[in-house]
Amino acid sequence: MEQQPDVPVVPEKAPRNRKKPTKPKPEGKQAGPSNAGANPQISAKQRGHPTRDSPEVRVSKTLSWILRHGAKSEGLTMRPDGCVKVTDLLANPKLSTLNLEALQEIVKADTKQRYDLKFDDGIWWIKANQGHSIKTVKLELAPILAVSDIPSGVAVHGTTKEAWELICKQGLSKMKRNHIHLAQGVAGDNSVRSGMRKASPVLIFIDVQRAIDAGLKFFLSDNGVVLSEGNERGILETQFFSRVETSNGIPITGWEGSTLTEKLDDLKLS
């Protein structure tokens, strides 16, 4: 019988395990204790741009935001007049770099006089003088009963060209704030401390006396800003615009002083 050649035996391949082995976590990467009980609204993140704004500017923006808008979300107790305890404020993670002395310097150096810092009954208190969106805040404001109650006799609102396209149709709105803000002059005037942004290409001058005679209410804040709640919808209507011009003093067509007054009188009579 013919001898068969030897055939090599090929062992069967073991089934491939497609599950990747779990790599042990390196030391120091273990999860820390849970923060489930912490308030997710409160963090150390400050307001302002992280690279464009200086640390001082970011602290100032954060302070302004907390006192005008964010006290409740930051867990701070605020009195009806807008005051919060300085000790509570400085305990906020966003203001961890501040102490009382630094806060005093911020208030003193603020050219717009945004803040009121006072020592009352053994406690330091601070508030924003105006600009609140917190509805429970009722500031002690001086009522303006006639245009003569405004020291400069002027009330003007600065805005952007884009915003003006809407304002010229519907009027000035207080939006989410408690008041519409008006300055006693344009940016750069020595009498203007607050209420006007430096970069405001459109200036809307308000006929305050005309608005008062129509039943609208105006007030003067502690730092000289003219405030109004507007009408029942929170609007200061265009009929109370005395003139509108650019920051260079160039009248905007159709919104010049005497022409505008005549146009509004015609509309009132029609």
Automatic annotation (TrEMBL):
It catalyses: 2'-phospho-[ligated tRNA] + NAD(+) = mature tRNA + ADP-alpha-D-ribose 1'',2''-cyclic phosphate + nicotinamide. Residues 1-59 are annotated as: Disordered. One of its GO terms (biological process) is tRNA splicing, via endonucleolytic cleavage and ligation. Residues 50-59 have a biased composition (Basic and acidic residues). Residues 32-44 have a biased composition (Polar residues). The keyword Transcription regulation does not apply. GO terms for molecular function: tRNA 2'-phosphotransferase activity. Its EC number is 2.7.1.160. The keyword Signal does not apply. Pfam families: PTS_2-RNA (PF01885). SUPFAM superfamilies: ADP-ribosylation (SSF56399). Keywords: NAD, Transferase. InterPro entries: Ptrans_KptA/Tpt1 (IPR002745), RNA_2'-PTrans_C (IPR042081), RNA_2'-PTrans_N (IPR042080). Belongs to the KptA/TPT1 family. Catalyzes the last step of tRNA splicing, the transfer of the splice junction 2'-phosphate from ligated tRNA to NAD to produce ADP-ribose 1''-2'' cyclic phosphate. PANTHER family: PUTATIVE PHOSPHOTRANSFERASE (PTHR12684), TRNA 2'-PHOSPHOTRANSFERASE 1 (PTHR12684:SF2). This is 2'-phosphotransferase. It comes from Mycena alexandri.
